[in-house]
Every structure is written in structure tokens, then in C-alpha cells.
Specification:
alpha/beta; Rossmann fold; seven-stranded mixed β-sheet; about 30% helix
Length: about 230
């Protein structure tokens, strides 16, 4: 379902914008192992010195080719500690049962100084409003949209260094391709007039160096992380 959604509007337009954002940052990173969780497989064309792997949730794998694909369980990733240089979470936190557990597993798998790129659907946007009105609709409207502020809070408690974030995709989630012909105009206008209201957000974070690996998560921080009754923050 997810892969087919990216083949048509509005998924096609969103994937194009997010792909541009990823390749912009990959151009300044140093290569190594890169693992993409979710999103459109093999959509990145500027990988340079990166060795690319794709990780899919078990319920997705039937529509994906097996070659080059890992199936993952958010409770225990199939990677050695400190073995990955860059991870891309492409609209994955919305569709796992324990997003904080997944972020912690990724932290353990990243090499010191490794980068984490996250895309998430913005609940405070026209896309978030569409989700509220589409409770019985399939991907991507059936996920739980975490706010950018909440995800940044998780990253901070787990020990990541926050580096950069922005929102993108200011067009409503139209299904007709002709309605996206002026899409780049709306992107430019949105970044100036309402920069926090794009339908998708991007977060770049970094795992701390070896000194940061000694940090312990306190009992109070752990309680904050795993309190499922907390609502998304702005």
C-alpha cells in the first residue's frame, strides 16, 4: 500500500520534495552505510560513496522485492551496534507501535557521529486536518501523526544532538496532478508566510561521540519517554 501511494498524487509530489531534501544533505556527508526505513525504495539517485540498504516493516514486505531489503522489528533491529553511518526514517514513526523504542534501537546501531534524518507528517497542517477527516482511509491517513516538537523531545532525551529542521509540502493533499503544477510557487510562499505549516517535516539529528555514549537515561526521563498518554506537543 505504501509503495503504491508514492506512485500517484499526492504521494508522488511529497516524495519528490523529500527526495530533494535528503540528497541535499547526503551531498555534505562522508559516505558509509546508509539505511532507509520506509518511503519509496531506490528513490535516491545521488548516493555517492554510500552503501545503500532498505528496511521495511514486516507488513510491507509483500509488495517489495526481496533483494536488498531488510525486514525489521522496532523492538530489535537486525544491525550490529555502531555499524551504520546514516539512517533515514521516512514516515516510519507514525506507523510503529513504539516509536521511542525504534529511535533508541537506531541510536544503538548508529556509529558515533552518525546522522539520523526523519520525515514525519505534520499534525498542525492541511495534511493533519485531512487525517482527522479520514479516519477510515488507508495509508498515510491511518497513522499517528507526532508533532515535530514531540519528536525533538524524544531525540534530546535519548542523547541525539539536534542539528536542523523545517517543514515542506505546503500544497493540500490533492489527488489530481494538474493541481500541483504551481507546486514550487506554493513551496516558496509557504516557507516565507507559514514556515511551520507544511504537510511534512524534516529533522536532522546526530548521535553524540563516544563521550556521549556514557550518558544514562534517568528514571524520570524514561517515564516521560514511555508515557503513552502524553499528547503530541507543538
Amino acid at each position: 500500500m505504501m509503495q503504491s501511494w508514492y506512485q500517484e498524487m499526492p504521494g508522488k509530489w511529497l516524495s519528490y520534495l523529500e527526495q530533494q531534501q535528503v540528497e541535499k544533505w547526503l551531498g555534505v556527508l562522508n559516505g558509509g552505510n546508509i539505511v532507509q526505513f520506509g518511503g519509496k525504495k531506490n528513490c535516491l539517485t545521488q548516493l555517492g560513496n554510500f552503501r545503500y540498504y532498505y528496511a521495511a516493516m514486516a507488513r510491507e514486505h509483500l509488495e517489495l522485492p526481496r533483494t536488498g531489503t531488510f525486514l525489521f522489528d522496532e523492538q530489535e533491529l537486525p544491525f550490529q551496534r555502531h555499524s551504520i553511518d546514516t539512517v533515514i526514517l521516512w514516515h516510519t514513526l507514525e506507523f510503529v507501535d513504539e516509536p521511542v523504542v525504534l529511535l533508541k534501537e537506531i541510536y544503538d546501531s548508529l556509529a558515533p557521529g552518525g546522522k539520523l534524518l526523519i520525515f514525519g507528517f505534520n499534525p498542525w497542517s492541511l495534511w493533519g486536518l485531512t487525517k482527522l477527516l479520514s479516519t477510515d482511509a488507508p495509508f498515510p491517513w491511518k497513522g499517528r501523526y507526532w508533532s515535530r516538537g514531540r519528536v525533538r523531545q524524544w531525540l534530546s532525551i535519548l542523547g541525539y544532538n539536534y542539528m536542523h529542521s523545517k517543514t515542506l509540502c505546503f500544497c493540500p493533499p490533492f489527488t489530481r496532478e494538474t493541481l500541483f503544477r504551481g507546486g514550487m510557487f506554493w513551496e516558496a510562499l509557504g516557507q516565507v508566510c507559514a514556515p511551520a505549516s507544511g504537510g511534512s517535516y524534516f529533522i536532522l539529528a546526530q548521535k553524540k561521540g563516544f563521550a556521549g555514549l556514557l550518558q544514562k537515561v534517568s528514571a524520570s526521563q524514561e517515564a516521560r519517554l514511555f508515557n503513552k498518554d502524553l499528547m503530541p506537543s507543538t
